[in-house]
Amino acid sequence: MALAGALMLTACAYPNTTVRTLEEKPQLAFANASPTAMLFVNGVLIGPAADYDGKKSTLQVGTGTHTVEVRENDRAIYSERIYLGSDAIKTISLPK
Asked: Please, are residues 31 and 90 in contact by the beta-carbon 8 Å criterion?
């Protein structure tokens, strides 16, 4: 009887699973970004660069070469073509 009870208890246990990401995407962060500085990646408007300060969040992009530009008042304050490898976090310091 005790054996049957033990078997019933082990059958009720939840399965133990782990989820892992197989591929880590590179990430971008921007230091010193003003609230009005707008971020463009490969010519596409992403939004305020300050949203990706590296503390609250980062921007995930695909592995490869990207054109990264930050504009403020329709003037480019940062523009560069950069290569990002897998699981890299690149922090770009913008001029103050």
From this structure: no
Tokens of 92: 């770009």
Buried b (16+ CB within 10 A) or exposed e, 60-79: ebeeeebebbbbbeeeebbe
Query: Using CA atoms, how far apart are residues 90 and 94, in angstroms rounded to an integer?
Result: 13
3-state secondary structure of 69: strand
For the entire predicted model, the pTM comes to 0.73
Q: Which two tokens stand for residue 94?
A: 């913008």
39 in Cβ contact with 48 (< 8 Å): yes
- Helix H or strand E segment including 30: strand 27-31
- Do 89 and 59 contact (CB within 8 A), yes or no? no
pLDDT digits 0-9 by tens, 48-62: 999 999 999 999 999
